[in-house]
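Sequence, structure tokens quoted for completeness.
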Amino acid sequence: MEVIEKPGAQAIPLTGLRGAIARGMQNSWQAPHVTLSLEANAENFERERQRHAVEVGEKISVTACLIKIAALTLRDHPGVNARISEKQIDVVSDVNIGIAVDLNPGLMVPVLKNVPQRTVADIADEVAALAEGARIGSLTPGAYQGGTFTVSSLGATEVEVFTPLLNPPQVAVLGVTRIRPRPVVEDGAIVVRKMMGLHLSFDHRALDGAPGGRFLTDLKHRIEAGLGL
């Protein structure tokens, strides 16, 4: 990124990648955003993730597991797996999930295709390959096309809540925050559980609050049961 030195300041031109991101974010924010947030008990999720890692003999990321569970949930909530244009909403049968990759500075969103049919280990391998390809600039334009839903994780930070921005023309994006121990009430008693933050932003032109809430609730229940891993 070009940085222009000025007395007492630095000027970063809105060109190249930074300019493309700025235009994309402006376009995204023009849509009527709604964000819903909740927490999921991640105890079973983490147990299943570790079991898979032992079985395949390699690290399985939280993001890879979430992508798999989100894809299975999207099949039951097709209105969330959609794209919007000026004249219509296209509900898509394929589930192709974009992953937001931090380029520091910058952000790119390569896409995993046909996610429900893939194993968690396969997803984990491709997430790593796409992230590395995005960072070194080796991906083709096709790697960024065809997405129907996006997952954006801030799990490596201490952020608790955020509003993920839409990736037009997709109608929804899932934001994920870190898993950490928190006190919760179970059967009238206060216990400590590993909790994960889930934050769904959607385009209110295409999706209403109730179906958005049902998708997020279903996703929460699947995570808590460790379903689909």
About this structure: The radius of gyration is 18 Å.
